[in-house]
Design brief:
The protein has 480 residues and is of the alpha+beta class. The chain contains 13 helices and 22 strands. The model has no long low-confidence stretch (mean pLDDT 94). The structure holds flavin-adenine dinucleotide (FAD).
Length: 480
Amino acid sequence: MERFDVLIIGAGVTGAMIARNLAKYDVKVALLDKENDVGNLTSNANSAIIHSGYDPLPGTNKAKFNVLGNKMFDEICEDLDVNFYRVGSLTVALYDEQLPLLKELAERSKQNGVEVKLLSAEEVKKMEPNINPNVKGALFAPTAGIVDVFNFVVHAVENAVDNGVKLFLNEEVTSIVKEGEYYKVKTQKEEFYSKVVINAAGCYADKIASMVEPIDWKITPRKGEYFVLDHYKEGLVNHVIFPLPSEKGKGILVTMTTSGNYLVGPSSELTDEKDDYRTDPPTLKNVRAQASEMVPSIPFNQVIRVFAGNRPTCTRHDFVIEYSKKDKNFINVGGIESPGFVSSPAIGEYVVEQLVKPILSMKEKANYNPKVRKYHRLYNEMREDNYKFSNEHLNYSEIICNCEKVTLGEILDVLSRSNPPHSVKALKRRTRAGFGKCQGGFCQPRVVLILAKYYGVSPLEINYDGEFSPILLEKIKGGR
Ligand SMILES: Cc1cc2nc3c(=O)[nH]c(=O)nc-3n(C[C@H](O)[C@H](O)[C@H](O)COP(=O)(O)OP(=O)(O)OC[C@H]3O[C@@H](n4cnc5c(N)ncnc54)[C@H](O)[C@@H]3O)c2cc1C
């Protein structure tokens, strides 16, 4: 088995950003994940907000990396060809007794170095005509944004792979032992050897860390449930709308997404099961009631999906980013709950520059390329020369997903990249085929056939998500 200098466990946004930063250097890097795609767990199911940093307690890792990370998003999203918009956020007070807390948050923002402005009720109503008319005021944070979380992780890993990182999917780490200079990392299928191991395993980071030594922190997932609305009603909200935060998190928000949908949620309840992604009607009813208090006219008759994500909530109440007590060559990057997504570029840089560099000699690569190949999303680009382009590239004239207007050309493009989709869900996240109103009812059979033809396998072998999640069970009629 090939030996590595650095092995990263977990290809969520944290592992992806560490891998991309390591790819700048002349070191052999392996990125492992137990899932059939990168960014398949927490990094796949969250609010997708690039928080300004007004909320984390000053002096914490959360505050430091949130504020640094936020500033890095314009350049990274440009390089990775990912949709990102600085739409700004409004944290609203609906009652007079909440106004002192708004002032406290404004003070905290100042300490964190975040630009904010306190707004009067009238100013808020002007900016957000659909807000509860009884609003008392708000904290405006202009640097908050929204991002396409799916392609952020996918393209970060693609860029890392293009620069030499090796990606291994469907590899669940089961044990870690030090043998001489190397760690032997065993998965259910193989053994990997690496001088340095980085644990970026999300909700499982405590389990991975405990494979090396006893630890004094634990992760209990905190589940968040959401509604996704179709993209119909324009201008329902113009900014990310938050309530005031509590010890449970930033509260239930109402926001637009980079794809033009609206997102309402999340709830915040602790769960003992790291893999529990079920939603339940009473929790969603509560989400709906709380969101409607802020924005009464949310059109819940246009909900097209509900989903849940699990925050890797840590007993330390902060990100754990440190060497293991026993050995500097094992690095823990755990407890990366919100604001973990926005923090990820800064965490990736810190881990590589401040933790890996002192223990491994690393030379910068001369040929490192920070950019991914441009992705042509015909419908979004609204190219003036659309007609000419699709005539010249005929696959772009064939629509596969009608709801989201995804063409065959886009699907073949993502399949030809260095971090391609292997499942229907992975293809959906990259192209949006199946994300629309019919939720794949019409395009999924075609997507299955395209995947089967591309990989030269039977459609029966195409999975929805993980390795053992086929959509088709057996052939029952003649057909193709
Ligand atoms: C409801 C909710 C809302 C949120 N909203 C925001 C927000 O708006 N803005 C923001 O900045 N942050 C937000 N977050 C936080 C953000 O999503 C997380 O901080 C971030 O996604 C964590 O990324 P990660 O890579 O550390 O973990 P993950 O994405 O979970 O990745 C860890 C990876 O490790 C892999 N793994 C685990 N065990 C093993 C093993 N044994 N072997 C191999 N691989 C393994 C997993 O398969 C997984 O892919 C939110 C989170 C939730 C749940």
